[in-house]
């Protein structure tokens, strides 16, 4: 949860704004003790996030508008990572599926 309001889920950052930007969803998404499937689909100019087949976030625009706050920075800027802020979650599996073209290792 962010602040005293309901839990928040969002893309960070859009136009330099973190949680509270236009992509923010303020409601319970993940339920304690119940597994959920989150799918994040990244295309050239869009990001869509679903939870248990329900669309939570659909953002479309110039990818240069997306950035990370310093606390999400990784040693390799192009690395894929999972994160949760001020809470705990258990990830049981993460699968990366290229939608087109061929994937390549960063190292």
Descriptive account of the structure:
The protein has 107 residues and is an all-beta fold. The chain has one domain (1-97). Helices cover 0% and strands 21% of the residues. It has no helices and five strands. The strands form two sheets. Strands 3-4-5 form a three-stranded antiparallel beta sheet, with no helix packed on it. The chain is globular, with a radius of gyration of 14 Å.
| Average pLDDT reading | 85
Instruction: Give me the side-by-side strand order of the main sheet.
Output: 3-4-5
C-alpha-based Rg, rounded: 14 Å
- State the domain count: 1
- Tell me about the largest β-sheet: 3 strands, antiparallel
Number of strands: 5
Cα distance, first to last residue?
Answer: 35 Å
Tell me what portion of residues adopts beta-strand conformation: 15-25%
